[in-house]
Amino acid sequence: GILWKYGYYDQARNQDQSLQVTWMEKVHSYLEDTGIKFQISIHDHPVWVKVFYLNPETFKSAPLFLLSTDLPENDYVSQTITHRLYDANVATKVAQFILLGVGGAKLMDEIGFGPDLYHLNEAHGVSAVFYLYKKFGNVEDVKKRLVFTTHTPEEAGNEKHDIHLCEKMSYFCGLGLDEVRKLTGLQDDQFNHSLVALRFAHLANGVSKLHGVVSRAMWSKYKDICPIISITNSQNWNYWADKQLYRASDESNDHWWDDRKKYLKRRAFEIVADQTGKLMNPNVFTIVWARRFAGYKRAELITRDRQRFEKLLNNPKYPVQVIWAGKPYPMDYPAINDFNHLVHLSKSYKNVAVLIGYELTLSKRLKQASDLWLNNPRVPREASGTSGMTAAMNGSVNFSTDDGWIPEFV
């Protein structure tokens, strides 16, 4: 992976409580300096790469190597390659893809590890195939070692860049464009990262059964792609689930279960009060929508009919409270507008809140506190979605459109 100096931005608020995008340097004192440094070529220029290591015992995770170019040996432009995740500058983004793919593959050689299998989790690292092609000398030796996971159920959402820019950025490890076109089967000037991954891998997968179906249909018009199967995403029960809820359930102790659920609500509602000044009631049915903010996920869907929304909020017999949280991409202005619309809408209701700081801790608190987990993506644009899985681990009911992983469990 890549060690991002400023991460994927931090959510703050403007004076009117609308979203403010901020970038703060991250400190990762738990990472080990491996002492490994090596060079790769980006824009026909040598760039130094430093390697850090996350010991699996630290967070009970898989071992993880993280690459950084933020080194004094590099010029400033090269240093910025690992500054921001999802940098909006196209050349910087291509440089990041080179670092991930070529840098990741070269790291395996640097530490003397010869993988039987290279897994591209999304196509951002597909530059690795050109490094491996130069290493092994033929396509078949690359293909038998490569598998690919696709995450995007729309062709337009898969990354494409000008092939001449990619060549200029040293994406192809010194291979000429004629050879690149021959190897990839690309005929036009758009380098389609996912299509190349599907042609170099011997097997690919979508991330739910439905996504596998959608992906096979979407890519079927292209020749020479590998088979696409379905492997549904999953989540870590040990991290997300509240164990006391399960002990209460195992003992069929409804009173204990209810008390624990109310405690989890009160803990989450402290965050609501700190951020918004609103005091939510642990005895009231709580609806939560919280995940990545993207247009197709339709965060604001239940507010579009304002009259019905107000009836929901003001029902004296069946009171509810609603919480939204999530992070829009910092350059996705329609998604930011949706977020801010909900912020301003929430000011009119004491039982509605919109939270910032949607990181792991807040995500966990909301999933454990929710009674109903709202999920309404536009079908079939949700490849999988996993937030509902972890909410269900904590006794929350999923209320969803029939998309992503949901059709497999209803």
Mean pLDDT across the residues is 97
Structural class: alpha/beta
* CATH fold name of the largest domain: Rossmann fold
Supply the CATH superfamily name of the largest domain.
Answer: Glycogen Phosphorylase B
Assigned CATH architecture of the largest domain = 3-Layer(aba) Sandwich
**Largest sheet, strands/sense/barrel:** 5 strands, parallel
Terminal CA distance: 35 Å
Shape: globular
Q: What portion of the residues fall into strands of 2 or more residues?
A: 15-25%
CATH class type of the largest domain: Alpha Beta
Q: Which residues sit in consecutive blocks of at least 5 with pLDDT less than 50?
A: none
If you compute it from the alpha carbons, what radius of gyration comes out, rounded to the nearest whole angstrom? 23 Å
Break the fold down into its secondary structure elements and pairings.
Blueprint: E1 10-13, E2 19-22, E3 32-42, E4 45-54, H1 56-59, E5 64-68, H2 76-79, H3 90-110, E6 118-121, H4 128-136, H5 139-143, E7 146-149, E8 160-162, H6 163-168, H7 177-184, E9 190-192, H8 193-200, E10 203-206, H9 209-219, E11 228-230, H10 237-240, H11 243-250, H12 254-276, E12 285-290, H13 306-313, E13 320-325, H14 333-346, E14 352-355, H15 360-369, E15 372-375, H16 387-392, E16 397-400
Parallel strand pairs: 6-7, 7-10, 10-11, 12-13, 12-15, 13-14, 15-16
Antiparallel strand pairs: 1-2, 3-4, 4-5, 8-9
Helix pairs in contact: 3-4, 11-12, 12-15
